[in-house]
Amino acid sequence: MEKFNKLSLPAVILMASIILGGFFYASQVNKQRSIERQQQVKIKQEKQNQLTKELKEQETKKQAEQSLNTCIADAETNYSNNWRNECKTRGELSNRCVALLDMTFEEYKKQNSRKSDVLATEDIGKEPEDLSEVIKKVIEERESNMREFYKERDKCSCGLPLEIADRRNKTLQDDKDECFKKYPQK
Questions:
Q1: What angle do helix axes 2-89 and 162-182 make, rounded to 10 degrees?
Q2: CB 108 within 8 Å of CB 149
Q3: What mean pLDDT comes out for the span 129-149?
Q4: Residues 138, 150: Cα–Cα separation, whole Å
Q5: Which tens digit of pLDDT belongs to each residue from 20-59?
Protein backbone atom coordinates (compact mmCIF):
# COMPACT_ATOMS: atom_id res chain seq x y z
CA MET A 1 0.00 0.00 0.00
CA GLU A 2 2.85 2.26 0.79
CA LYS A 3 4.19 1.68 -2.73
CA PHE A 4 0.77 2.50 -4.09
CA ASN A 5 0.72 5.80 -2.18
CA LYS A 6 4.24 6.62 -3.34
CA LEU A 7 3.29 5.99 -6.97
CA SER A 8 -0.15 7.54 -6.79
CA LEU A 9 1.04 11.08 -6.10
CA PRO A 10 3.36 11.21 -9.13
CA ALA A 11 0.67 9.48 -11.24
CA VAL A 12 -1.91 12.08 -10.21
CA ILE A 13 0.52 14.91 -10.93
CA LEU A 14 1.38 13.34 -14.29
CA MET A 15 -2.30 12.89 -15.16
CA ALA A 16 -3.13 16.45 -14.07
CA SER A 17 -0.21 17.79 -16.13
CA ILE A 18 -1.36 15.86 -19.21
CA ILE A 19 -4.95 17.09 -18.82
CA LEU A 20 -3.91 20.70 -18.17
CA GLY A 21 -1.43 20.54 -21.05
CA GLY A 22 -4.14 19.20 -23.36
CA PHE A 23 -6.51 22.02 -22.39
CA PHE A 24 -3.76 24.59 -22.83
CA TYR A 25 -2.80 23.12 -26.23
CA ALA A 26 -6.47 23.06 -27.38
CA SER A 27 -7.00 26.67 -26.31
CA GLN A 28 -3.84 27.79 -28.15
CA VAL A 29 -4.91 25.96 -31.34
CA ASN A 30 -8.38 27.53 -31.11
CA LYS A 31 -6.83 30.96 -30.53
CA GLN A 32 -4.54 30.52 -33.57
CA ARG A 33 -7.47 29.47 -35.78
CA SER A 34 -9.44 32.48 -34.63
CA ILE A 35 -6.56 34.81 -35.50
CA GLU A 36 -6.20 33.20 -38.94
CA ARG A 37 -9.96 33.59 -39.59
CA GLN A 38 -9.77 37.25 -38.60
CA GLN A 39 -6.82 37.77 -40.96
CA GLN A 40 -8.70 36.06 -43.81
CA VAL A 41 -11.74 38.26 -43.19
CA LYS A 42 -9.50 41.33 -43.13
CA ILE A 43 -7.82 40.30 -46.40
CA LYS A 44 -11.21 39.67 -48.03
CA GLN A 45 -12.45 43.06 -46.85
CA GLU A 46 -9.33 44.79 -48.19
CA LYS A 47 -9.75 43.07 -51.56
CA GLN A 48 -13.43 44.07 -51.65
CA ASN A 49 -12.54 47.67 -50.77
CA GLN A 50 -9.86 47.72 -53.49
CA LEU A 51 -12.30 46.31 -56.05
CA THR A 52 -14.95 48.84 -55.06
CA LYS A 53 -12.41 51.64 -55.34
CA GLU A 54 -11.30 50.46 -58.79
CA LEU A 55 -14.91 50.19 -59.98
CA LYS A 56 -15.64 53.72 -58.73
CA GLU A 57 -12.53 55.03 -60.49
CA GLN A 58 -13.55 53.30 -63.73
CA GLU A 59 -17.08 54.69 -63.47
CA THR A 60 -15.76 58.18 -62.75
CA LYS A 61 -13.37 57.94 -65.69
CA LYS A 62 -16.16 56.67 -67.94
CA GLN A 63 -18.47 59.51 -66.84
CA ALA A 64 -15.74 62.09 -67.40
CA GLU A 65 -15.05 60.67 -70.86
CA GLN A 66 -18.74 60.66 -71.72
CA SER A 67 -19.15 64.22 -70.43
CA LEU A 68 -16.14 65.32 -72.47
CA ASN A 69 -17.51 63.68 -75.62
CA THR A 70 -20.91 65.29 -75.08
CA CYS A 71 -19.31 68.69 -74.49
CA ILE A 72 -17.21 68.40 -77.66
CA ALA A 73 -20.23 67.25 -79.68
CA ASP A 74 -22.21 70.24 -78.36
CA ALA A 75 -19.35 72.57 -79.31
CA GLU A 76 -19.27 71.13 -82.82
CA THR A 77 -23.07 71.38 -83.14
CA ASN A 78 -22.94 75.02 -82.03
CA TYR A 79 -20.15 75.62 -84.53
CA SER A 80 -22.19 74.13 -87.39
CA ASN A 81 -25.32 76.03 -86.37
CA ASN A 82 -23.41 79.31 -86.07
CA TRP A 83 -21.76 78.75 -89.45
CA ARG A 84 -25.10 78.05 -91.10
CA ASN A 85 -26.71 81.03 -89.38
CA GLU A 86 -23.90 83.21 -90.66
CA CYS A 87 -24.56 81.86 -94.17
CA LYS A 88 -28.29 82.46 -93.70
CA THR A 89 -27.71 86.02 -92.44
CA ARG A 90 -25.46 86.77 -95.41
CA GLY A 91 -28.16 85.44 -97.78
CA GLU A 92 -25.91 82.74 -99.20
CA LEU A 93 -28.31 79.84 -98.66
CA SER A 94 -31.07 78.71 -100.97
CA ASN A 95 -34.67 79.04 -99.79
CA ARG A 96 -34.76 75.24 -99.49
CA CYS A 97 -31.76 75.28 -97.16
CA VAL A 98 -33.21 78.10 -95.06
CA ALA A 99 -36.44 76.14 -94.67
CA LEU A 100 -34.57 72.89 -94.04
CA LEU A 101 -32.41 74.39 -91.29
CA ASP A 102 -35.49 75.67 -89.49
CA MET A 103 -37.45 72.41 -89.56
CA THR A 104 -37.43 69.37 -87.32
CA PHE A 105 -36.97 65.84 -88.57
CA GLU A 106 -40.71 65.14 -88.21
CA GLU A 107 -41.56 68.22 -90.29
CA TYR A 108 -39.05 67.14 -92.93
CA LYS A 109 -40.59 63.68 -93.08
CA LYS A 110 -44.12 65.07 -93.58
CA GLN A 111 -43.02 67.67 -96.11
CA ASN A 112 -41.07 65.17 -98.21
CA SER A 113 -43.65 62.37 -98.09
CA ARG A 114 -41.11 60.01 -96.58
CA LYS A 115 -42.23 56.46 -95.83
CA SER A 116 -43.71 56.12 -92.40
CA ASP A 117 -41.44 54.81 -89.72
CA VAL A 118 -44.22 53.84 -87.33
CA LEU A 119 -46.16 50.59 -87.08
CA ALA A 120 -49.20 50.45 -89.32
CA THR A 121 -52.54 49.38 -87.80
CA GLU A 122 -52.58 46.14 -89.82
CA ASP A 123 -49.21 45.19 -88.32
CA ILE A 124 -50.48 45.19 -84.74
CA GLY A 125 -52.25 41.80 -84.92
CA LYS A 126 -49.38 39.92 -86.56
CA GLU A 127 -47.56 36.98 -85.05
CA PRO A 128 -44.45 37.84 -83.00
CA GLU A 129 -42.05 36.54 -85.67
CA ASP A 130 -43.75 38.67 -88.34
CA LEU A 131 -43.98 41.62 -85.99
CA SER A 132 -40.24 41.54 -85.28
CA GLU A 133 -39.59 41.78 -89.02
CA VAL A 134 -42.00 44.72 -89.27
CA ILE A 135 -40.29 46.46 -86.34
CA LYS A 136 -36.90 45.85 -87.92
CA LYS A 137 -38.13 47.41 -91.19
CA VAL A 138 -39.63 50.38 -89.32
CA ILE A 139 -36.31 50.99 -87.54
CA GLU A 140 -34.39 50.71 -90.82
CA GLU A 141 -36.82 53.13 -92.49
CA ARG A 142 -36.45 55.65 -89.65
CA GLU A 143 -32.67 55.43 -89.83
CA SER A 144 -32.80 55.87 -93.60
CA ASN A 145 -35.10 58.90 -93.26
CA MET A 146 -32.81 60.47 -90.67
CA ARG A 147 -29.71 59.89 -92.80
CA GLU A 148 -31.43 61.61 -95.72
CA PHE A 149 -32.52 64.52 -93.53
CA TYR A 150 -29.06 65.14 -92.11
CA LYS A 151 -27.35 64.50 -95.45
CA GLU A 152 -29.51 67.16 -97.09
CA ARG A 153 -29.00 69.52 -94.14
CA ASP A 154 -25.24 69.07 -94.24
CA LYS A 155 -25.22 70.26 -97.83
CA CYS A 156 -26.60 73.60 -96.64
CA SER A 157 -23.48 75.63 -96.10
CA CYS A 158 -21.45 78.31 -97.72
CA GLY A 159 -17.95 79.68 -97.89
CA LEU A 160 -17.55 82.50 -95.42
CA PRO A 161 -15.05 85.34 -95.65
CA LEU A 162 -11.75 84.42 -94.03
CA GLU A 163 -12.20 86.81 -91.09
CA ILE A 164 -15.58 85.32 -90.16
CA ALA A 165 -14.43 81.75 -90.77
CA ASP A 166 -11.37 82.30 -88.56
CA ARG A 167 -13.57 83.75 -85.82
CA ARG A 168 -15.94 80.73 -86.02
CA ASN A 169 -12.99 78.31 -86.00
CA LYS A 170 -11.42 80.08 -83.01
CA THR A 171 -14.73 79.90 -81.13
CA LEU A 172 -14.91 76.18 -81.83
CA GLN A 173 -11.37 75.66 -80.58
CA ASP A 174 -12.04 77.77 -77.48
CA ASP A 175 -15.19 75.75 -76.75
CA LYS A 176 -13.27 72.48 -77.12
CA ASP A 177 -10.47 73.76 -74.88
CA GLU A 178 -13.08 74.68 -72.29
CA CYS A 179 -14.45 71.12 -72.52
CA PHE A 180 -10.99 69.70 -71.81
CA LYS A 181 -10.61 72.03 -68.82
CA LYS A 182 -14.05 71.10 -67.46
CA TYR A 183 -13.61 67.36 -67.99
CA PRO A 184 -9.90 66.55 -67.73
CA GLN A 185 -8.88 63.03 -68.68
CA LYS A 186 -6.39 61.09 -66.57
A1: 170
A2: yes
A3: 78
A4: 18
A5: 888 888 888 888 998 999 999 999 999 999 999 999 999 9
Q: How far apart, in whole angstroms, are the C-alpha atoms of residue 183 and residue 64?
A: 6
Contact indicator for 153, 81 with CB cutoff of 8 Å: no
pTM: 0.56
Q: Tell which residue, 147, 104, 149, 141, has the closest CA to residue 119.
A: 141
3-state SS, residue 115: coil
Q: What are phi and psi of 123, to 5 degrees?
A: -80, -20
Q: Which of 55-64, 66-75, 91-100, 128-137 has the lowest mean pLDDT?
A: 128-137
Among 157, 182, 160, residue whose Cα is nearest residue 170: 160
Q: C-alpha dihedral over 48, 52, 55, 56, to 10 degrees? A: -170
Cα 127 from chain centre: 36
